[in-house]
Design a protein that fits this description.
Radius of gyration: 22 Å
Largest sheet: 8 strands, mixed
Order of helices and strands: HEHEHEEEEEHHHEHHEEEHHHHEEEEHE
Low-confidence stretches: 14-18
Structural class: alpha+beta
Distance between the termini: 56 Å
Helix content: 25-40%
Number of strands: 16
């Protein structure tokens, strides 16, 4: 290690000592509470390069990159009243050859207490992270900075820092480490939540550790053209396609009582509130339709989604939502309630109320922008919301250049919803290439 590298390492170490622990952010508080032997709140981000991965170089890049992200190079600890993150100086994490079933549970004391995993397979680098550490934006910063470091070690030139690629020699800014919820949870009222119980997909549970992956790879321009024909954005259009697939599934489920069909969709709050936090900074909205009111054409579903999203996704309503979320944490009585009681109440509320508010999950990471020097090395990206808490499917969308991928993750045997989803896209003139870790049957 040269003198300059030693100085950078000393700076990072000094910064780590200034912060001995990090309080979990407002969203992160919930994720450890939901932890079960067969479930962890784990998501996956991956990048496909154009050359095969060299694992020894990838490990070197990981060792150089992770110290730049102190809330990812961390272990979770349990206090009397709250959980928190503390710096983790144990060996690791170590890159591993990829597995058939991703997003496996992360146990807090395993893997030298690291809550991140890095996998490689052929030309793919994949990062898995526990949601306690941060959301997809923070995770993508880790993955892209790691990828840039890896490519530089292989001799790639002209890869500049910027966007998701951070300077591994820089000192983390305080804004990257903040709980941004608490800074912006300052509306003068806490709006109530009146979400009604939604339709739940009934399916055959897969064995423990099994996660079914179905990827649809398509052209951004074709999807955009289809969305435009319905007067919608890509996100609105794909939400409508998923809602129609769920409606079709409910119609065929003779055991199911007719209920509203809704999608849990995270909104990146950084688009509305100035923040550079690498931790969680999202909130949920629930676009949907109620088939009890009558039969919906696809065009009507699109209009319903478009009107819902354009009404709910704005700074004022989002500020009110996070203020409602923050109210319990600010309550002085709740703050001194022992952790095991908080866990019981939160788990009960999530199981009986929150998880029943939606029929599926959908997130759109949007267009991936990378430094110009990295573009020639990248083929595409994938993103997975991970194992659902209950029996359903989760859907994630990301695009790079003219490649858009829709990644489904499910813990049930049946793939009806995914099949109806892709059939609708094909009917709308979109060419779809399917990849999967399971055998697809028509």
């Amino acid at each position: 290690m040269g003198k300059t590298e030693k100085e950078h390492a000393a700076k990072r170490k000094e910064h780590a000592h200034r912060r001995d622990w990090y309080q979990l952010d407002l969203s992160a508080i919930v994720y450890p509470t939901l932890q079960r032997r067969d479930f962890s709140s784990v998501y996956r981000l991956s990048v496909l390069l154009k050359e095969e991965i060299q694992p020894d170089v990838l490990q070197q890049a990981l060792d150089m990159t992770l110290p730049r992200f102190p809330t990812y190079k961390a272990a979770i600890r349990k206090g009397l009243f709250w959980r928190y993150l503390e710096p983790n100086d144990r060996p690791g994490p170590f890159v591993q050859k990829d597995v058939r079933n991703p997003c496996q549970p992360m146990y807090f004391k395993a893997n030298n207490r690291y809550l991140v995993r890095v996998y490689y397979f052929r030309n793919r680098i994949a990062l898995e992270a526990h949601h306690s550490l941060g959301d997809g934006t923070g995770g993508m910063c880790v993955l892209m900075t790691l990828t840039a470091t890896y490519l530089r070690l292989l001799g790639a030139e002209g890869i500049e820092n910027g966007g998701f690629v951070l300077d591994i020699h820089g000192t983390p800014r305080e804004g990257e480490l903040e709980d941004a919820y608490m800074r912006y949870a300052n509306a003068k009222v806490c709006p109530p939540r009146l979400e009604e119980r939604s339709y739940r997909v009934r399916g055959t549970a897969e064995p423990f550790y099994t996660l079914n992956i179905i990827d649809g790879i398509m052209s951004v321009s074709e999807v955009m053209a289809a969305a435009k024909r319905y007067g919608a954005t890509i996100t609105e259009y794909l939400n409508a396609v998923l809602l129609q697939a769920l409606l079709t599934r409910q119609e065929e489920d003779r055991r199911a009582r007719l209920r509203p069909v809704k999608i849990a969709m995270p909104v990146n709050l950084r688009r509305f509130f100035p923040s550079i936090t690498l931790r969680n900074f999202i909130t949920m909205i629930f676009p949907g339709v109620d088939p009890r009111l009558g039969e919906y054409t696809f065009e009507e579903i699109v209009v319903q989604v478009r009107n819902y999203m354009r009404y709910h996704i704005n700074e004022k309503l989002l500020r009110g939502d996070i203020t409602t979320n923050a109210a319990t944490q600010r309550n002085p009585f709740i703050r001194v309630v022992p952790l095991f009681i908080k866990d019981f109440v939160v788990r009960l509320f999530y199981t009986k109320v929150q998880d029943r508010n939606s029929s599926a999950g959908l997130t759109n990471m949007g267009v991936m922008k990378v430094p110009e020097g990295m573009k020639p090395y990248i083929e595409r990206f994938d993103i997975y919301m991970g194992q659902p808490f209950s029996r359903r499917t989760n859907c994630a969308i990301i695009s790079f250049e003219d490649i858009l991928t829709v990644n489904f993750a499910s813990s049930i045997v049946e793939a009806d919803v995914e099949r109806y989803f892709f059939r609708r896209l094909v009917r709308d003139g979109i060419h779809v290439k399917i990849e999967s870790n399971r055998d697809m049957e028509e």
